[in-house]
Amino acid sequence: VIIGAGEAGVAAAGALRENGCESPIVLLSAEKHLPYERPPLSKELLLGVTQAPRLIREEQWYAARRIELRLGCRARAVDSQRRLIMFNSLPDLPYEQLLLATGAAVRRLTFAGAGEVRYLRDLDEAHALAAELAPGKRIVVIGGGVIGLEVASAAIVRGCQVTVLEAADRLMSRVLTPEISAIVLRRHVEAGVVVHLNAKVGQVVREAGGTYVELSDEMRLGFEDRRLKADVVVGAAGVIPEDTLARSAEGCFCEDGIVVDGCGRTRVAGIFAAGDVARFPHPLFGSVMRLESWQHAGRHGAHVGRAMLGDAAAYSGATNTVSTCRSRAL
Ligand SMILES: Cc1cc2nc3c(=O)[nH]c(=O)nc-3n(C[C@H](O)[C@H](O)[C@H](O)COP(=O)(O)OP(=O)(O)OC[C@H]3O[C@@H](n4cnc5c(N)ncnc54)[C@H](O)[C@@H]3O)c2cc1C
Questions:
Q1: Ligand 1 center–CA 104 separation, angstroms
Q2: What digits encode the pLDDT tens for the residues 240-272?
Q3: Which of 95, 144, 217, 266, by CA, is between 20 and 30 Å from 22?
């Protein structure tokens, strides 16, 4: 059984079949849509180039490989002793081997008024946000990382007035060197995006005149206008590993993700993890890490699928990731 039909889960299912697995394969997805690619959500979908998701695989691909795809099926817990998956309103599902490919969840903001903030992780959220991006709309993006800047890029192309608030002193500081951050900043500013660095949000206030994003007290000095009027506020403060199920499985060790070995094995016999949710030993960096990248999720999923069949090779790690900022690949 594979829980999570994102890039990693679908790749694992395919690798299992391609490498001789004859057992039934059940692929569970909490989402109701056929498994789709996430990268276009913040690019083509927000730009309005398309409304249709890019499917990871066509529907017939699953049937042709006897992969039983169960959509809208959220697992609640895992009993690792009895090898059972539990749901809220479905019978328990037994497994011989289990792959947790549950990905990541958006980090929700917690300041006062955070209920006004929208997020972008899934197809429904992408459609809802795309519908808001009309000329003249004031969009405030909280977070100047990859997703925040992709949202800003799409919104400015669609004629919105865009402000990015970044708490750090430079953009995309987790993944870029200061030199490249400076280039990314320049390109966004040239395109018309207003970027405030060292800007921490205190609260979001909704009142008769509209919605306002207010910067926190210590950040207020130095800004002429500390209150930003917003038609749409987008939270883009990163993701956290979706390891709820792993934490329910006795013996499964989690620390900022599900900790696995080079074959994707957790510390519980028969349970594996792959993709955004897994913390694995990366041979290039010599440390245990999670990667939130499309290339990695697909490669890792396929690798762990083969490992479930006994392939003992250690994952070599993905070394690249791609983002699109202001129509340029980064
Ligand atoms: C808007 C956006 C743009 C991106 N752009 C890029 C990019 O340009 N380049 C790049 O490299 N990466 C990009 N990424 C990141 C990339 O998409 C992810 O790293 C990748 O999708 C991770 O795949 P995954 O299979 O590990 O997890 P996910 O794609 O998160 O899939 C996990 C699935 O598991 C399901 N699930 C979770 N819990 C349960 C449960 N209990 N029961 C059943 N199902 C469950 C979830 O609903 C989800 O469908 C982007 C991500 C987003 C959101």
A1: 6
A2: 999 999 999 999 999 999 999 999 999 999 999
A3: 266
Nearest CA to ligand 1 atom 16: 294
Residue 40 tokens, joined? 């276009």
Residue nearest atom 27 in ligand 1 by C-alpha distance: 103
pTM of the full structure: 0.95
d(CA 89, CA 322): 39
Angle between helices 178-190 and 146-157 (to 10 degrees): 20
Best CA proximity match to 93, nearest among 82, 101, 104, 107: 82
CA of 6 to the centre of ligand 1 (A): 6
Average pLDDT over residues 70-95: 98
295-299, long-range: CB < 8 A, 24+ apart: 295/320, 295/321, 295/322, 296/321, 297/6, 297/7, 297/8, 297/11, 297/103, 298/7, 298/8, 298/11, 299/11
Q: Which residues pair with 68 in a beta bridge?
A: 26
Contact, 252 vs 267, CB < 8 A? Answer: yes
Nearest-5° angle of CA 211, CA 215, CA 218?
160
**CB-count burial class (<10 Å; 0-12, 13-18, 19+) for 132:** middle
